[in-house]
């Protein structure tokens, strides 16, 4: 992969990638995520970018950091939603938000076209 020709992922995109991997079962409860420095080098981003992605996943309750050891997919307590299911629900929610955003953009464009059409009718004499 030529890292110069491709756009580097931001923290949100890295978090989404890992979230998808948790949802797919690539990373399961107790699994250690890649080390920040090595992962940053692999992706061609700064260590801070990877740390921000991991912090986002931690805020979502999917992973936990163990000082001096690394970042791990959380193991759940009885009755608590597993990270895999939580990650899948988050991914589903993101897909729904994207679908709704696309629909809203389409509706906005349609309203603009209607406004132009109505404006041109109102400008004609005798309308």
Automatic annotation (TrEMBL):
<dbReference type="InterPro" id="IPR036388">
    <property type="entry name" value="WH-like_DNA-bd_sf"/>
</dbReference>
<keyword id="KW-0238">DNA-binding</keyword>
<dbReference type="InterPro" id="IPR036390">
    <property type="entry name" value="WH_DNA-bd_sf"/>
</dbReference>
<protein>
    <recommendedName>
        <fullName>HTH gntR-type domain-containing protein</fullName>
    </recommendedName>
</protein>
<dbReference type="InterPro" id="IPR051446">
    <property type="entry name" value="HTH_trans_reg/aminotransferase"/>
</dbReference>
<keyword id="KW-0805">Transcription regulation</keyword>
<feature type="domain" description="HTH gntR-type">
    <location>
        <begin position="8"/>
        <end position="76"/>
    </location>
</feature>
<keyword id="KW-0175">Coiled coil</keyword>
<dbReference type="InterPro" id="IPR000524">
    <property type="entry name" value="Tscrpt_reg_HTH_GntR"/>
</dbReference>
<feature type="coiled-coil region">
    <location>
        <begin position="90"/>
        <end position="124"/>
    </location>
</feature>
<dbReference type="Pfam" id="PF00392">
    <property type="entry name" value="GntR"/>
</dbReference>
<keyword id="KW-0663">Pyridoxal phosphate</keyword>
<keyword id="KW-0804">Transcription</keyword>
């Amino acid at each position: 992969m030529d890292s110069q020709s491709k756009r580097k992922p931001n923290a949100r995109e890295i978090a989404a990638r890992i979230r998808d991997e948790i949802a797919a079962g690539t990373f399961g409860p107790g699994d250690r995520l890649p080390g920040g420095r090595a992962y940053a080098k692999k992706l061609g981003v700064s260590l801070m970018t990877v740390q921000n992605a991991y912090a986002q996943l931690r805020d979502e309750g999917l992973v936990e950091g163990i000082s001096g050891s690394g970042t791990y997919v959380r193991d759940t307590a009885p009755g608590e939603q597993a990270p895999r299911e939580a990650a899948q629900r988050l991914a589903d929610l993101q897909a729904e938000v994207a679908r709704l955003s696309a629909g809203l953009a389409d509706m906005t464009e349609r309203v603009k076209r209607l406004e132009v059409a109505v404006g041109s009718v109102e400008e004609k004499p005798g309308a």
